[in-house]
Design a protein that fits this description.
Aspartate Aminotransferase, domain 1; 2 domains; L-threonine aldolase; PyrdxlP-dep_Trfase_small; 12 strands; alpha/beta
Length: 342
């Protein structure tokens, strides 16, 4: 059998030849000393893209998120986010374990956030309550099926958090997809948030790396937190070069991934398992009314050369990316409906 069609995640991609060449040619220095020119250039470039003063390269999206949260929320105080947010679902309790941060969540609604619900949850200091110091949103929303939070919703949250004196953080791991899907400029997104994390290895095809984006003052503090968490890197420019190449060459092509995801969703629509509209590169599958559960689906698909992500007993996910071409989608469109027909 030919190699697998891997639809588990957009983190499984391999660097392109052009990206490998950029990595090989990158000028290097010791980034802990602030002397890696390729890292410094990437940080300046990403900060400028989002209209912020500064950015800091980090080894992972989880580390970038947790550093950003600690910049706004002191130990023992509170972050608000939704119950399916990556920061409380897939970061193994880091906010509490590392930052001493208390979290409180609203019911999972993916990208369909009601700003009024969030506003009503904000607790001021005093009255023996845990004060809310920040709100976090996820753009696009992973467990929300790659949903894109509308700009108007984000603007409502920004107005409300500003009024309450509360910071607004964006887990922007896939914000590039939102930018392509809705046409919202990156700087427009950036203007709404006090802190951001943006990922280079989801969709853009870089092997490693995320950045924290914020003010000069906050990024100086972020460097201390990164070092404390073991994230100081030396000749990191070899990785930063991959990210810089991805930003230059791989953002506009995300529209191709969105189109491929739409093809998958269309092929599976007759079986009633596609959970909501598919607008980016994630296809969420709700199997609660299906005769096959997520683990059985994944096992049957693997036997036929297609890899599927299991997110829960009755929840699965398909993700398109730059290493899945049209022929691979043809194969998946042939295999997956046949499993549901059994």
């Amino acid at each position: 059998m030919a190699e697998f069609v891997d639809l588990r995640s957009d983190t499984v991609t391999q660097p392109t030849e052009g990206m490998r060449a950029a990595m090989l040619a990158a000028p290097l220095g010791d980034d802990v000393y602030g002397e890696d020119p390729t890292v410094n250039a990437l940080e300046a470039s990403v900060a400028a893209l989002f209209g912020h003063e500064a950015a800091m390269f980090a080894p992972s999206g989880s580390m970038a998120n947790q550093i950003a949260i600690q910049l706004s929320v002191p130990p023992g105080e509170e972050l608000l986010c939704d119950a399916d947010a990556h920061v409380v679902t897939y970061e193994v309790g880091a906010a509490a374990a590392i930052g001493g941060v208390s979290t409180r969540t609203w019911a999972p609604v993916g990208a369909d956030i009601d700003p009024d619900v969030v506003v009503d949850m904000i607790r001021p200091a005093g009255y023996h309550a845990v004060p809310t110091r920040a709100v976090a949103v996820e753009q696009t929303h992973n467990r929300g099926g790659g949903g894109v939070i509308p700009l108007s919703t984000l603007e409502g949250l920004r107005a409300a958090t500003t009024s309450a004196g509360v910071a607004l953080h964006c887990d922007g791991a896939r914000i590039w997809h939102a930018h392509v899907a809705d046409g919202v400029p990156l700087a427009t997104y950036g203007a709404l948030f006090d802190t951001m994390s943006v990922c280079l290895s989801k969709g853009l095809g870089a092997p490693v790396g995320s950045l924290v984006v914020s003010s000069f003052e906050k990024i100086e503090r972020a460097r201390v937190l990164r070092k404390r968490m073991g994230g100081g890197m030396r000749q990191a420019g070899i990785l930063a070069a991959a990210g810089a190449y991805a930003l230059e060459h791989h953002i506009s092509r995300l529209a191709d991934d969105h189109a491929k995801a739409a093809r998958l969703a269309e092929a599976l629509a007759p079986f009633g398992v596609v959970a909501g509209a598919v607008r980016t590169n994630l296809v969420p599958l709700d199997l609660r009314k299906s005769p096959i559960d997520a683990h059985a689906l994944a096992a049957a698909a693997r036997e036929r050369g297609v890899l599927v992500s299991v997110l829960g007993p009755r929840v699965a996910r398909l993700v398109t990316h730059m290493d899945v071409d049209d022929a691979a989608i043809d194969r998946a469109v042939s295999v997956l409906p046949e499993i549901f027909r059994r």
